[in-house]
Design goal:
The structure is a homodimer. By secondary structure, chain A is mostly helical. The first copy, chain A, has 10 helices and 3 strands. Chain A has 2 domains: about 80 residues, Winged helix-like DNA-binding domain superfamily/Winged helix DNA-binding domain (Arc Repressor Mutant, subunit A, Orthogonal Bundle), CATH 1.10.10; about 150 residues, Up-down Bundle (Four Helix Bundle (Hemerythrin (Met), subunit A)). In chain A, a hairpin with a 3-residue loop joins strand 2 and strand 3. In chain A, helix 9 runs antiparallel to helix 10. The longest helix of chain A is centred in the C-terminal third of the chain and has 33 residues. Chain A starts with a helix and ends with a helix. Chain B binds a DNA duplex through helix 1, helix 2 and helix 5.
DNA sequence: GATTGACACCTTGTGTATAATTTAGCAAGG
DNA sequence: CCTTGCTAAATTATACACAAGGTGTCAATC
């Protein structure tokens, strides 16, 4: 009886986390590992293994897994455990088609309620993106900021959160692939077109360009996925 | 050591559930209790209480709660437990605005790929709905079937699932309020207009009516909420 | 070669201990 | 006398160790 208590106290004294703090954001840690590619799509997520990895017991892991299932990143089958969601081409297309509805809807509001300050921030950010094409890590951060400025103050936080979750899921894939030169040019053009439309308070045009922007991203990602799968097939015949 | 094992064996012999089977659908049970109004919006969801209620231990309850959080029905604050999501007017408006994007998108596909059999099923169903206006319980079931026929075979299952989840959340509210006579007429008319548009393979018209249908539902629900809150204020001055 | 049985792994549920929060009760000050 | 602050106890969430059942795999036998 006393033995267990002593072990726990010892662990706390050793300076390890009590687990309590970690538990709140364990799903964030796991999600990060998934998004960053340290856990491959389709990989089994064994509770004991993850517990060891993050220095907790299996129970918080199970809860985090259920949480991530809600976000669509993890799939749990009864008595068979959890896996990282395998992302198919169909899935990508489906998600992007929803985004093609949501993002134009969100940007329409911004066109009418953007402050001069925000527009200026967008321009500065986009100029930075133009100049730092080489730095990937940085691009994704800047791109996220670009979207956050546009969507952050929108009244429909449910829609914003939906868009954010979709972006997280897709980021599992996008970060793995390079961005083609043609796509870079398109992104640049589209971003500037959106900024222009916002400046002119032309909601229809902004929505139109945004939809085009989303569809372009979708097509580019699917092309990259196909190219990668061809490469894989060639290397493993 | 042996004592616990004996207890468990005894319990199984007594014919109680091993718990294993329940766990798969515990979140369904809790969701049902929430949707059916047995658990009020904003009510605290204490794990011990729920565990007793469903005859399990606290752990499966926690997992179910995390799952439901992913569905947006439950809100969990760290170290403070879970609550049934309090549904505000803003929230309703936000969800319906998303639905006003998704549902027209979904119906467009159906217009092009509906079979004669499906269209006939819609007509039969709607005639039944027209004739049984009085029966609420039945109406919601029939209405669900009506939508399931239109959305069930859509290729974008992600969008379908999103729509389904939103419907579940809104149903927590809608079932509490009556449907006004005016709204009944509108529903009937809109449903028939949608069926007509589908028959003519007029996707634009079907989408237009569907959007109107969603916005009408939104407005009606919000009016009912306001009326209810006024009543509440009068009865508790 | 196919089927069946046994074994190992893993998920799932339970009980208990620990840590956090909330609430109440009480005291001191306005 | 009421309000405000703190302290302690009850309440509740959280984490951990354990037990049991299910799933998949591998080998042996028909």
């Amino acid at each position: 009886m006393g033995g267990r208590a002593v072990r726990i106290v010892k662990r706390v004294q050793d300076g390890e986390s009590t687990g309590q703090d970690r538990g709140q954001c364990l799903h964030d840690l796991i999600r990060e590992d998934i998004v960053e590619g340290r856990l491959e799509p389709g990989a089994r997520l064994k509770t004991a293994e993850l517990a060891k990895r993050y220095g907790t017991s299996t129970n918080p892991v199970r809860e985090a897994l259920h949480h991530l299932q809600g976000e669509g990143i993890v799939i749990i089958s009864p008595n068979r455990g959890a896996r990282v969601r395998p992302i198919s081409e169909d899935f990508v297309r489906n998600i992007y088609e929803i985004r093609a509805l949501i993002e134009p809807y969100l940007v329409r509001w911004f066109v009418n309620y953007a402050t001069d300050r925000e527009i200026e921030a967008l321009e500065i950010l986009q100029r930075d993106i133009d100049e730092n094409r080489s730095d990937y890590q940085w691009y994704w951060q800047a791109n996220e900021q670009f979207h956050n400025i546009i969507y952050g103050r929108h009244y429909n936080q449910e829609a914003v959160e939906l868009e954010f979750q979709q972006r997280k899921v897709l980021h599992i894939l996008t970060r793995r692939y390079a961005i083609s030169r043609a796509r870079w040019q398109a992104i640049t053009r589209e971003h500037w077109d959106i900024i222009e439309a916002i400046k002119r308070h032309d909601a229809d045009e902004a929505a139109r360009v945004m939809e085009q922007h989303v569809r372009g991203a979708c097509q580019h990602l699917i092309e990259q996925m196909r190219a990668a799968s061809v490469n894989k097939a060639l290397h493993r015949p």
